[in-house]
Design goal:
Blueprint (H helix, E strand, L loop, with lengths): L2 H4 L6 H9 L2 H13 L1 H4 L5 E2 H8 L3 H12 L5 E4 L2 E3 L2 H4 L10 H7 L2 H7 L2 H7 L4 H5 L3 H7 L1 H25 L7 E5 L5 H9 L4 E6 L1 H4 L2 H7 L6 E5 L12 E5 L7 H14 L6 E6 L1 E2 L8 H10 L6 E2 H10 L2 E7 L6 E7 L1
Parallel strand pairs: 4-5, 4-7, 5-6, 7-8, 9-10
Antiparallel strand pairs: 1-3, 2-3, 8-12, 11-12
Helix pairs in contact: 3-6, 3-8, 5-6, 8-13, 13-14
């Protein structure tokens, strides 16, 4: 029995393929409503396109057509008479939602991505990133030179931490760590969240200078600035010494194996205790054909920074080559898991 025979409302094969081919259209429309804060405007009830257009200084008819199209994929509800209401999906775009995805959505659908993905064939043919032909330089060099794009990226990383850190803290026991070094820790959102729960722990935040420049405000607001040392530098050159554990959120997946080995060996070199741990917060891909969002994030890694998502076996081999041994993988209720390793 075909899917259409079992479910007469299911899209036909033709409709399904057409939906996939226009996938960029909902994406860029989500970027627009995220930037305009439409979900915030609907937080207290339905509003008309005219009212929303006036509040966001946009063209009423154009905004109406964008919202009407998005309602067909469950983002906002078209309730008639050119009025729109919130849906569970659009509610996640509110800036004050406890599980807000607004900054992540704005980053993953921003024009920078569209520019880079227009050159995806270059990646498929060469194995190189799209950043070269699109930006003229590696992604992170481009971000360092473009503060507005860098802010969008950093906001998305902080937003991502807000989503994954509660299940992470629930699943993994950080007690017993005296000093935690966050390698490539951005503005410090991961480190701050862990320090807030573990009052006796101290932290070292380590990232490039233009990145950690934005950390003091977040650390102060989180109430952990007095326990956190901020250090600027490149993890390809060295990492701070003195950590009982070194944590990295979505760092290893940015890089190919060769550069990951440099990072992991630098951490091993900086640590003096045989009991030191490295904690890698990443998606772990299923080794079989099971559908998984990480298989799409893997395309993102291939296209932009040049890294990859990995299976548990790939993590184990990478760690072994760099002088570590995989001790366990702790599953969480988010897309990120904790890959724990100790010196081999």
């Amino acid at each position: 029995m075909s899917s259409n025979e079992s479910n007469p409302n299911a899209p036909s094969v033709v409709e399904h393929m057409l939906q996939l081919t226009i996938g960029y259209m909902p994406a860029i429309c989500i970027n627009i409503v995220a930037k305009l804060g439409i979900a915030d405007q609907l937080a207290n009830g339905a509003r008309s396109a005219a009212v929303l257009a006036k509040a966001t200084n946009t063209n009423e008819d154009a905004l109406y057509r964008v919202l009407r199209a998005l309602s067909t994929v469950g983002v906002f509800s078209d309730i008639g008479s050119r009025q729109f209401a919130q849906t569970p999906a659009s509610d996640m775009l509110r800036s004050d939602h406890p599980q807000s995805l607004r900054a992540i959505a704005a980053f993953l659908t921003d024009p920078l991505h569209f520019r880079c993905y227009s050159n995806l064939m270059h990646s498929v043919k060469t194995g190189e990133t799209t950043a070269g032909p699109t930006l003229g330089k590696p992604l992170f060099e481009y971000l360092a030179e473009n503060p507005e794009e860098s802010e969008v990226f950093n906001d998305a990383m902080v937003n991502g931490t807000q989503v994954v850190i509660p299940p992470l803290l629930e699943a993994y026991d950080f007690s017993g760590i005296g000093t935690l070094v966050d390698v490539g820790g951005g503005h410090g959102s991961v480190l701050a969240s862990i320090l807030q729960k573990h009052k006796q722990m101290k932290g070292i935040l380590y990232d490039l200078g233009h990145v950690v420049d934005g950390a003091p405000v977040l650390l102060e607001r989180s109430g952990v600035a007095d326990r956190t040392q901020v250090v600027a530098g490149s993890f390809f050159e060295s990492v701070p010494s003195g950590g009982d554990a070194y944590i990295m959120k979505n760092i290893i997946h940015d890089w190919d194996d060769e550069r990951c080995l440099v990072i992991l060996k630098n951490i091993l070199r900086a640590s003096s205790s045989p009991n030191v741990k490295v904690l890698i917060l990443e998606t772990v891909l299923p080794a079989d054909a099971t559908p998984h969002p990480g298989k799409w994030f893997d395309i993102e890694m291939m296209a932009l920074p040049g890294g990859r998502e990995r299976t548990d076996e790939e993590f184990s081999r990478l760690l072994e080559k760099s002088g570590w041994r995989l001790t366990k993988i702790v599953l969480t209720k988010s897309l990120l898991n904790v890959i724990e390793a100790m010196p081999a």
